[in-house]
Write a structure and sequence with these properties.
The complex is a heterodimer. Chain A contains 12 helices and 14 strands. By secondary structure, chain A is of the alpha/beta class. In chain B, the strands form 3 sheets. A 5-stranded parallel beta sheet of chain B has the order 3-4-5-9-8, with helices on both faces. The chains are: A alpha/beta, B alpha/beta. The interface between A and B is large, with 51 and 46 residues.
């Protein structure tokens, strides 16, 4: 049986977009004949001559260039080599791309692909999850796919959207996560998905933490607990309705993210549920994030820096006793 | 009016018609900006007022050499260039006065205005950012197979210190884009003098490092500005790659309306840098007998009448209504209804 990885799905989505839409081009460091640091653009330069271009190490100018091209009607895809380096292009993203439509009524349809999240040995500058930073700014769509199918369909949707999209793809999922085939149906990217139904507690999560959360839910099933797992898929827009509907079923909420704890997606979800669904809660909502330090290099430290199936299971046991 | 081509001291032919046309844009910009300053003093304009006094010759020389279809991203002291590129004074007044009918509809103000769909980009305040944006527009044009177009942007001496400026210019050089970057070295970035801004002899030397062509120009001499900018824009249009034009001049006013510019030294004001480009240009065209003083006076009256009429009109226009405002930052329709 053939299978396709999360990374191959991202490559396939880009190939399809290049094939179907002459406005699409890819720009990033080493994305050309080399095929990208993670090979997300493997062979694309050859298949689409002139449309997959190596950039200098200039994150600010890469985004600025994409903005100018988008104003002119193109659909640029910018690959940041690592999400961490997108901070060098932060100004163009949050002050230029994000504000353009509101200021001028001219859309800015670009996609910034951010290889996000931790892998063993990545260390402080090749591991960060920055979705909360981008979600903070009005005008940006922030997608955080956690499945092979979503990586494919959401990237295609991101390219079609008339607004700047920050596409957070998780490096840990690149090679390990597999599906049998590319999907033929797509759930709109702004809808969360109940990945695992349950009745005792809700875990709201996204990206790689989806799989840690599903593993924790499976573990708790051995003890007779039915844990519902909601995959946000996009953190902006945030599908509050699906979250509230789940909390209405379970009465208990744990929000899990690999990002740093201060503020961020977990805090936002809890703020909304508390404000809009306080009466649905049987216990104080809980959150689990990475620790509040830079992401450490050594596997022994990294493995306990981010949430894992085991720490999520422990948090769920605590939540169920509250 | 007797605006025909003549040969200047150099071998270049100076187009008298173009010179007079440029002068009219300069005069319009100067008078319009005086009106803007007055509107600010009378409380009609909220926020900053950023004037290009002393930089009109340089600014117009770029704008007048651009064509419809080119891409232009002016900066804060480019009223003259904006007019020459085709922006009417209506857009300027509407944006400054916050009219709901202006191109920015009260969502952005003063010099942060443009019509990007028409190749007239609206600057963000972060200096250097427009260099790569204009480059991206040129790459889009290249994808579409368009040739013979030029992208241009302006910056000051201070803006050349940003990483964004460097990254953008380097990118444009790699791609050999038809980009013209005009640096108005007006000696101060707000209050910071050149000595605290850069250590090279002249900013034009940086062109060598980027592998692009550099030009120096006397920024308060319209004849020189027209000649050099004509050359730079033509070179870019012909495919010679990015052109860096560095002008020496002096800002004859504060950074913004609140700044008395007390840091500008008397010696600088008295030096050739401190000459007012309006006076230099006016003397030149009178000497060449291209126009008479009476004709100049009648131009001034015409422009003043237009400014008054446009101001009166814009002051009567509606302000943006917060109840009517969409408060939506997205272009994608299905994102509008979501709770964000």
């Amino acid at each position: 049986m053939t299978s396709i990885t999360y990374l191959e799905a991202i490559r396939a989505a880009q190939a399809r977009a290049l094939e179907e839409d002459s406005r699409v081009f890819i720009y990033g460091q080493d994305v050309g004949s080399f095929g990208g640091a993670f090979k997300a653009t493997k062979n694309l330069a050859k298949e689409f001559p002139g449309r997959v271009m190596d950039s200098p190490i200039s994150e600010d100018a890469m985004i600025g260039m994409a903005i100018g091209a988008a104003i002119e009607g193109m659909r640029p895809i910018i690959e940041m080599q690592f999400a961490d380096f997108s901070t060098c292009g932060l100004n163009q993203i949050v002050n230029h791309a994000a504000t353009l439509f509101y200021r001028t009524e001219v859309p800015c349809p670009l996609v910034v692909r951010l290889p996000c999240g931790g892998t063993s040995g990545g260390g402080p500058f090749h591991s960060q999850s920055l979705e909360a930073i981008y979600a903070h700014f009005p005008g940006l769509v922030v997608m955080t796919p956690g499945t092979v199918e979503d990586a494919y369909t959401m990237l295609l949707e991101a390219i079609n959207i008339d607004d700047p999209v920050i596409f957070c793809e998780h490096k840990f999922l690149y090679y390990h996560l597999k599906a049998e085939a590319l999907p033929t149906m797509a759930l709109p990217s702004n809808k969360a998905r109940v990945t695992r139904p349950g009745r005792d507690a809700t875990v709201v999560t996204y990206s790689a933490m989806l799989h840690e959360s599903l593993a924790a839910a499976a573990e708790l099933a051995h003890d007779g607990y039915e844990i519902e797992v909601v995959d946000l898929r996009s953190v902006k827009p945030l599908d509050t309705d699906t979250i509230l509907a789940s909390v209405a079923r379970t009465g208990r909420l744990l929000v899990v993210s690999e990002a740093f704890p201060w503020g961020g997606v977990t805090a936002e979800v809890i703020a909304r549920v508390t404000a809009e669904g306080f009466g649905l809660l049987d216990a104080p909502p809980q959150r689990l994030n990475a620790r509040d330090t830079p992401v450490p290099y050594h596997p022994a430290l990294w493995g306990t820096h981010r949430p894992t199936a085991s720490t999520i299971a422990s948090a769920l046991h605590r939540l169920l006793k509250l | 009016m007797n605006c025909k081509s003549i040969t200047t001291g150099s071998t270049h032919e100076l187009d008298g018609t173009l010179f007079c046309q440029a002068y009219r844009y300069m005069l319009t910009a100067r008078l319009l900006e005086e009106k803007l300053a007055a509107l600010k003093r009378s409380g009609k304009i909220v926020g900053g007022v950023f004037l290009g006094r002393g930089q009109e010759a340089l600014s117009v020389a770029l704008g007048i050499h651009l064509r419809k279809g080119d891409v232009y991203a002016p900066l804060i002291r480019d009223q003259a260039g904006r007019l020459a590129f085709g922006e009417g004074m209506l857009d300027a007044l509407r944006t400054y006065l916050g009219s709901a009918l202006g191109s920015m509809r009260g969502r952005d103000g003063n010099i942060h205005r443009g019509r990007p769909r028409e190749g007239y980009f609206a600057m963000i305040s972060h200096l250097g950012a427009m260099v790569s944006a204009v480059s991206g527009a040129l790459i889009a044009r290249r994808f579409r197979g368009e040739t013979g177009i030029v992208g241009a942007t302006c910056i000051g001496d201070g803006g050349t210190s940003t990483g964004s400026f460097h990254e953008g210019l380097n990118l444009a050089a790699i791609e050999k884009l038809p980009l013209v970057v005009v640096v108005a070295n007006n000696q101060y970035a707000y209050s910071t003098p050149n000595s605290r801004q850069f250590a090279c002899d002249n900013l034009v030397d940086r062109a060598i490092g980027y592998g692009i062509t550099g030009h120096r120009v006397i920024g308060n001499d319209l004849a020189n500005c027209l000649e050099v900018l004509q050359k730079a824009v033509a070179a870019a249009r012909a495919g010679a790659g990015p052109q860096l034009v560095v002008a020496d001049l002096l800002r004859l006013i504060g950074h913004a309306d609140h700044d008395d510019a007390s840091y500008i030294t008397e010696a600088q004001k008295q030096s050739p840098l401190g000459r007012d480009c309006m006076i230099v240009a006016q003397q030149f065209l009178l000497e060449k007998n291209w126009m008479s003083q009476a004709e100049l006076d009648s131009w001034q009256k015409e422009i003043e009448v237009e400014i008054e009429a446009t101001t009166t009109r814009v002051l009567r226009e509606p302000a943006p209504d917060p109840q009517e405002e969409s408060w939506i930052p997205f272009a994608t329709s299905h994102l509008h209804s979501e709770s964000l």
